[in-house]
Amino acid sequence: MRTGAAIVGLLIAVALLSLVWTPHDPAAIDVAVRLAPASAAHWLGTDQLGRDVAAMLMAGARVSLGVSIAAIGGALLIGIPIGLLAAARGGWTDALLMRSADMLFAFPALLIAVLLAATLGPGAGNAALAIGLFNVPVFARVTRGAARSLWQRDFIAAARLAGRGPLAISAAHILPNILGTIAVQATIQLSLALIAEAGLSYVGLGVQPPAPSWGRMLEEGQTLLGIAPRLAILPGLAILIAVLGFSLLGDGLRDRLERR
Questions:
Q1: Membrane spanning segments where (predicted)?
Q2: Which pLDDT band holds residue 163 (cuts at 50, 70, 90)?
């Protein structure tokens, strides 16, 4: 968990730093120094258009994190109430909500994201919407499963005897006790959202130029593998490290919660 937290913390720090400073303008084109190797002026060299690779990676961290956090945040805001409602009401309400979630699960996540992004048009906002939509049933099911196990506990029975309704009990007693489980799932889904964002940008349906994106950097760099392999390797490593960080953090949180 500490390793994952350190990686995620570093990623967030780089993303925040890119808001106020980068070694060069990540969108600035300077053909005179195209494909320049790493140097004091350009720490990781330049790409085929003379753009500074280090600056693009820093700005790409901001874009990838922003889209992923927006997508997962929106999914949490919608999925948690659905899961709590399904667990509290049960019966046909539970069946209807969960079968609706199963319909979304019948399609691959990236395919849904590509279809939505292609329909709505490319862009950061639409990419976040597409990624978030698939994650709504994920959090709905996780919330429902965790909440249902608590509805049989004695303290919930005491709250019901005190005259509190199902929705009040869900907000005051159920939700605080399942936040840890939801947080673990959110961390894991963030790693998947990063991959989805990179995939959408890779096929041209994510963040659009001149805003930098790790996925688009990877797509552009693969055509130059024989000349400048770092242009594909560096954004690929950035995606790998970011996903690894969130995955390790999620696994560590889950292990700690299980021990408790």
A1: 64-88, 100-118, 188-207, 227-250
A2: confident
Distance CA 237, CA 218 (A): 10
pLDDT per residue over 173-222, tens digit each?
Answer: 999 999 989 999 999 999 999 999 999 899 888 888 888 899 999 999 99
Total-model pTM: 0.91
Cis omega (within 30 of 0) for bond into 210: yes
DSSP code per residue over 16-35: HHHHH--SS-TT---GGGTT
Domains along the chain? Answer: 2-8+51-259 (1.10.3720.10)
Number of Cβ within 10 Å of residue 108's Cβ equals: 10
118 falls in which pLDDT band (50, 70, 90)?
A: confident
Tokens of 18: 């890119």
- Rounded CA gap, 194 and 206, in Å? 12
CB-count exposure of residue 82 (10 Å: 0-12, 13-18, 19+):
buried
End-to-end CA distance of the chain: 15
Could you give the CA distance from residue 40 to residue 54 in angstroms, rounded to a whole number? 12
Cβ-based neighbours of 79, under 8 Å, separated by 6 or more: 135, 136, 137, 138, 139, 140, 142, 143
Q: Is 165 exposed, middle or buried (0-12, 13-18, 19+ CB in 10 A)?
A: exposed
- Quote the CA–CA distance of 230 and 238 in Å, as a whole number: 12
CA distance 104 to 134: 7
What confidence tier does 20 reach under pLDDT thresholds 50, 70, 90? very high
